[in-house]
Amino acid sequence: MPLSALILALGSAVLHAAWNLLLGRAKDVQAAAATTFVISVAVALPFAVVWWHAEPSVWPWALASSLLEVVYVIG
Question: I need a labelling partner for 43 at 20 to 30 A (CA). Which of 32, 35, 50, 58 fits?
Fold first, then answer.
């Protein structure tokens, strides 16, 4: 397993635990979720712009996945 894959998996686990801790202690779960999403986009966007080089065929799937995630969280 490449070291980068291990780092990504461990980072994902830490973020997931932090997400659950934040929402578990929040008085307003919807506001906490919205805040977390905004912060996540703000942190991830610069990295995605610099390093993410996706084939054009990926974009419809990425957009559909993003929209479905938004619908899931709102619903």
Answer: 58
Digit-coded pLDDT (tens) for 56-72: 999 999 999 989 988 88
Q: Are 60 and 46 in contact (CB under 8 A)?
A: no
CA 60, 62, 67: angle at the middle one, nearest 5? 95
Phi, psi of 27 (to 5 degrees): -80, -35
pLDDT tens per residue across span 2-56: 999 999 999 999 988 988 887 888 898 888 888 888 888 899 999 988 988 889 9
> Please, what sign has the CA dihedral across residues 47, 52, 57, 61?
negative
